[in-house]
Amino acid sequence: MRNDAVTQTTELEDKLLDLVAEEGMIDRALLSRDAKLADLDIASADFIMILMAIEEQYGVYISVDAEMADLKTVGDLLAVSAKKIEEKAAE
User: According to the model, what pLDDT value does residue 1 have?
Assistant: First the structure.
């Protein structure tokens, strides 16, 4: 069971990284969990486009609130996004 959850998490993260790369116009190879968002030169408009793409793809709402403002790394973004997607799936 645990391996299935890990596989699903990895697959979700891969899909989210693909969205970040596409919408943020960033080389996918540069996106690791430890990559700092500030170092990736993601403009605020690009960040909004990334969030909108995640919302559209997964049918979730991700508000740009304090939780989003505190994101520092790609891993932080993945964690918040995955949490919202999992919450939606549990409904």
Answer: 44
* Alpha-carbon Rg for the chain in angstroms: 13
SS3 readout for the chain = CHHHHHHHHHHHHHHHHHHHHHHHCCCHHHCCCCCEHHHHCCCHHHHHHHHHHHHHHHCCCCCCCHHHHCCCEHHHHHHHHHHHHHHHHHC
CATH 1.20.120.450 fits 2-90, yes or no: no
The C-alpha atoms of residue 88 and residue 58 are separated, in whole angstroms, by 9
pLDDT at 57: 95
Consecutive sets of 10 residues in the chain, 91 residues long: mean pLDDT of each?
A: 57 93 92 90 86 94 79 91 90 85
